[in-house]
Design a protein that fits this description.
Elements (H helix, E strand, L loop, with lengths): L2 H13 L4 E4 L9 E5 L4 H5 L1 E3 L2 E3 L2 H10 L4 E6 L6 H4 L3 H6 L1 E2 L2 E2 L4 E7 L9 H5 L2 E2 L1
Parallel strand pairs: 1-8, 1-9, 2-5, 5-8
Antiparallel strand pairs: 3-4, 6-7
């Protein structure tokens, strides 16, 4: 990653306003990140019922714990490796910063990584919700 992209990434991370779509960067680069694999099952992504109570997914609980220590990143890893239609399961997260009835922490930045940003690999709606670096 060249210096210009690194500076741009740092500026976006500080502002935390919009989700980021970043090409060719390993998830290990990010500290204090909760990683969701793009091929996560919808049930594991959205939460579940225990008796009559709706419970958040496990990754959400981890995100809340990490957010208590400062800024946190929710990283969607390799989004281009799943079908375009399946990528839409992340729209609620990207657009509203929430999953089901659970809001993401205010100090949370969403980053989606991919290995190929070509038009045919990223869903148009997902692409439109992210700043590209």
């Amino acid at each position: 990653m060249n210096k210009e992209r690194v500076n741009l990434l740092e500026n976006y991370m500080q502002s935390g306003l919009s989700p980021l779509l970043i090409e060719n960067i390993p998830s290990t680069v990010f500290d204090n990140a909760v990683i969701i694999k793009a091929n996560v099952d919808r049930l594991a992504l959205n939460g579940h019922y225990e008796n009559i109570e709706f419970c958040p997914p496990e990754w959400y609980r981890e995100l809340i714990e990490k957010s208590k220590k400062g800024s946190v990143i929710l990283l969607i890893e390799n989004i281009n490796e799943i079908a375009l239609e399946e990528q839409t399961k992340f729209v609620e997260l990207l657009k509203y910063k929430k999953v089901s009835t659970f809001d993401l922490p205010q100090n949370c930045l969403i980053i989606a990584t991919c290995s190929d940003l070509s038009v045919h690999k990223i869903n148009e709606e997902v692409y439109s919700l992210c700043a590209q670096i």
